[in-house]
Every structure is written in structure tokens, then in C-alpha cells.
Amino acid sequence: MPKLLWNLYALCYDAVTRLLPYQEMLDQVVAALEVAPGMRVLDAGCGTGVLAERLAKACPDIELVGVDLSSSMLARARARRAWPASFTFVERDIDSSLAADAAGFDRLASVNVIWTLPDPQGTLAHMTAGLRPGGRMVHTTPRFSFRAHVIVWRHLRGQKGWALARALLGLPVLLFAGLLNLLLVAQSALLARAPRARQRWHEDGLVALLRQAGAEPRPVRPCYAGQGYLIVADRRTPPQEK
């Protein structure tokens, strides 16, 4: 059932990623990552490859690994464009990917993934352990009091002429995506039985989860038309590594 819903969501997910607030959020993530040539980057929960595409344009000379559980999401990601040879996409859960990877990553990003994790603290700990010295994580995740209509209205206000007409015609697809999203939230709530899983919905809780995972978060910033959090966290360097 978990994969089935995500594979179904893949059919309409790109309609969500084309929303202006989503595009602005991706720009914030890319800016916060500060990637440079030669870096190794993990796109955790890469979906249809929208963040990877931005990173390929910003700095094609990185090694990027995109990981996702959904085969349908990954199929769309692989077909999105002609990728640099150093970009790969793998169908696997984040924890298993990190456990199987001995090389480590200079940067790790997740866009609206933390809320889906059954054990957010455990996965964040694996993410932190998978960072190289001096490594950085950038996450976005929705607030508990998420209001989708604010995002849609922000998008519509940014459109004019035919772009506005196309945006209005696309509202039924967004409605379908919203209904699927509610099912995914319910599924996530049922699967999240780990201690402190509820903390992922609140700013203070997210900071606590990251610190407990061995990362040092910076001040949390709003994103996604104010409906989400942008969190940048550095790998805490043990004294022996300084």
C-alpha cells in the first residue's frame, strides 16, 4: 500500500512542483546547498527529479544520487532530461541507501520528505552519519497547520494571460493531488510509531530531532508560501576530527 499511493501520486505530482511557491522553495534549497564541482550529493526522496534538474543546471560537475521508493516517480525522473553521466537514480528507501554507501556525501537534500518518514529521528541520524566532515543537510517540510489554498492562491496571483488560464484549467489535477496527499498523510501517521515522530510537524521539534541526530541546525526559515520550514543543518564535528 505505501508504494501504491506514491506511484499513483506520481501521475499528478509534477502539477504540484510547477506551482510558483514550490519553484521558489526549490530555488531556496539550491541556494542553501551551495554545491561546488566535485561534491557528492544525495537527493533523498528525489521524486520526479525536479530538484536534481535544478542542481544539474546550477552545477553539472557534481555526483548526484537520487533515491526514492516509488518506481513511477523514478521513471519520470529518469525521463525528465538528458542527465550528466554522474547523476544516478536508485529505487530504495533512504535508510538502506545510506547504510549501503561507504563513500559519504558532501551535501544531502530532502524536499518535503521528513513528514513521510516512519522514524524521522532514526533516518535523520543515518543522514547525519552519511555526511562527510564539513557536510551539510538542507530539508524542507510542511507545517502542521498546512493550508494548501494559500499556495494555490499565491501561484494564481503570479500568473497572467494564458498562463493564468492554464493554471485555472489545472485546478482539478491539483484537487486530485490534494486528495492523494491527505491519504498519504493518513498513511504516514499510521506508520509513524517511532518515539518523537510527532516532533517533525513543529519548528522546535524539528530542531530537537536534528540535534538528537548529531546535526547542528541553523535558524529555521519559512518557505513554500509560509506553509513549510526550510532547515539547514551542518554535521557536528567530533573533537577527534577537528
CATH superfamily: Vaccinia Virus protein VP39
Give, in order, the helices and strands: HHEHEHEHEHEHHHHEEE
Overall pLDDT:
93
N-to-C CA distance: 46 Å
Coarse morphology: globular
Q: Could you tell me the number of beta strands? A: 8
* Name given to the CATH architecture: 3-Layer(aba) Sandwich
- SS-derived structural category: alpha/beta
The helix content is 40-55%
Protein traits:
Rossmann fold, eight-stranded mixed sheet, alpha/beta, 10 helices, globular, 242 residues
What can you tell me about this protein's structure?
Helix content is 47%, strand content 20%. The chain is an alpha/beta fold. The protein has a single domain, classed as Rossmann fold (3-Layer(aba) Sandwich), CATH 3.40.50. Helix 1 runs parallel beside helix 4, helix 1 packs antiparallel against helix 9 and helix 5 runs parallel beside helix 6. The chain is globular and about 50 Å long. The model has no long low-confidence stretch (mean pLDDT 93).
Concise overview:
This protein has 242 residues and is α/β, with parallel strands linked by helices. It has a single domain, classed as Rossmann fold, CATH 3.40.50.
Question: Could you give the topology of this structure?
Answer:
Elements: H1 2-17, H2 20-33, E1 40-44, H3 50-58, E2 63-68, H4 71-79, E3 87-91, H5 94-100, E4 105-111, H6 120-129, E5 131-142, H7 148-157, H8 162-169, H9 171-191, H10 203-212, E6 215-217, E7 221-223, E8 228-235
Parallel strand pairs: 1-2, 1-4, 2-3, 4-5
Antiparallel strand pairs: 5-8, 6-8, 7-8
Helix pairs in contact: 1-4, 1-9, 2-3, 5-6
